[in-house]
Amino acid sequence: MSGFEIDPQIDYDFNARESVADFDAEFGKLIALSNRAMADYPRQADIVFDADSGSALDLYGVAEGRPVFLWIHGGYWRLGTKEGNAFAVPGLVSRDVAVAVMDYSLAPAVNLEQIVHEVRTAVAWLHREGPSMGLDARKIHVGGSSAGGHLSGAVLADGWRQDYGLPRDMIGAALALSGIYDLEPLLRTQVNGWMNMDMGTVAALSPIRHIPEETDAHLILSVGGKERDGFLRETQAFHEAWAAKGHRVTSVDMAACNHFDITGTLTQTEGKLVNATVAAIRAFHL
């Protein structure tokens, strides 16, 4: 663990699994929603966007002129699949937004730098290949929960687009749920047992430390009201830091939700998170 000792309070604050009475039941609900979505919505499956890693994405709701939203799964960078995250599809596709749900290589087999690289590669692939499918990919919209919230923040971060052949300001709406935006607290949690992060990782890959000076991206933040303090603090701090730069940020109150069922609300065509995200996306495609 790079020499960092676990701090019991910090570890408690960021233990998502133990923040609910029955993790298996919560996880099972999301799998059921995802299975239903895969049955109800046709998809282009297993499109490899990164030849080096073999990582792939599934595309739903592709139609001429539609914007595209990339969903990045959580699981503390070591768990999760695109199939298990198809719950992100119904609400947005029913509102005429195409949705890509991606896989990425998982820790501890790879480090966080590689995971961030694959997510950014997926964004670049959608921007490059989307027009050939009829999508309006001038702006790519992203979202994710927990580790996926962090990875959405890594897409918003400054300083990487030129290396991927992308325009400087091509991210539109970003829906970040229950994310970790400053990685430093995690150095003293059990998470670092499989992430093996150090202060170099914290400096390079904490989104709150790489907020652009100029951007027209619209950040949408939310965290379940029943979540533990670590996630509540991270969301509040990222909101304040983004707003301090004068950037657009919207917070959506989800007081009745926990760390897991907040994502399940993305199945709701008129859900609060879907409404906020669609409004932000549409503003870029008038």
TrEMBL record:
GO molecular function: hydrolase activity
Matches recorded under InterPro entries: AB_hydrolase_fold (IPR029058), BD-FAE-like_dom (IPR049492), GDXG_lipolytic_enzyme (IPR050300)
UniProt cross-references to Gene3D superfamilies, sorted A to Z: alpha/beta hydrolase (3.40.50.1820)
Keywords: Hydrolase
Cross-referenced Pfam families: BD-FAE (PF20434)
Domain BD-FAE-like: residue ranges: 66-152
Protein name as it appears in the record: Alpha/beta hydrolase
Source species: Sulfitobacter sediminis
